[in-house]
Amino acid sequence: xHLALLMRGGGDPHCILDFGAGNGELxxxxxxQFPKAKIVCYEPTPSLMAEAKENLAxxxxxxxxxxxxxxxxxxxxxxFCLEVFEHLPEKETKDAxxxxxxxxxxxxxxxxxxxxxxxxxxxxxxxxxMSRRFNTFDAxxxxxx
Length: 145
Description:
Blueprint: E1 15-19, H1 25-33, E2 38-42, H2 46-55, E3 62-65, E4 76-82, H3 90-103, E5 104-113, H4 119-133, H5 141-144
């Protein structure tokens, strides 16, 4: 998909946020598409942030953030949030959406993707999550079943 299609009114974005960037691989793709844009890699998990910093070390237009309060209101034109919300409880989901509202420009867009987790694939992913972090919100027996 051509990312420019996501921009209302055309033109290249000045600031793009990858919310829950993991190891930063999406930031790398965005940097190739929009080489003049400032890209903010937001990842609150320290181990994943370390991976992202190593993965993106050669891309100077990417900055790293673990605290969204440090980003100015209305300064982001495009937010990507892919495969994050299925890991968040209700309160954290509402908080994140409130941050999106605060951060986006008037004509900004947020792209939110959540996987469809039903049947055997959902069970497999749930067991994997439980093996890594048993009894957290998305890795409890109740929520997996």
